Amino acid sequence: MQWCGRSSCLHWRHRLGPVQIAGRLGLAASTVHAVLVRCRINRLSRIDRVTGEPLRRYEHPHPGSLLHVDVTNFGNIPDGGGWRYVGKKQGDRNREATAKRTGARHAHYEPNVGTAFLHTVIDDHSRVAYIEIHANETAATAIGVLQRAITWFTDHGVTVERVLSDNGSCYRSHAWRDACADLDIGTNERGPTAPQTNGKIERFHRTLADGWSYARHYHSETERRAALPGWLHFYNHHRAHSALGGQPPITRLTNLPGHHN
Question: Which among 37, 65, 93, 204 has most CB atoms closer than 10 A?
Answer without folding.
Answer: 204
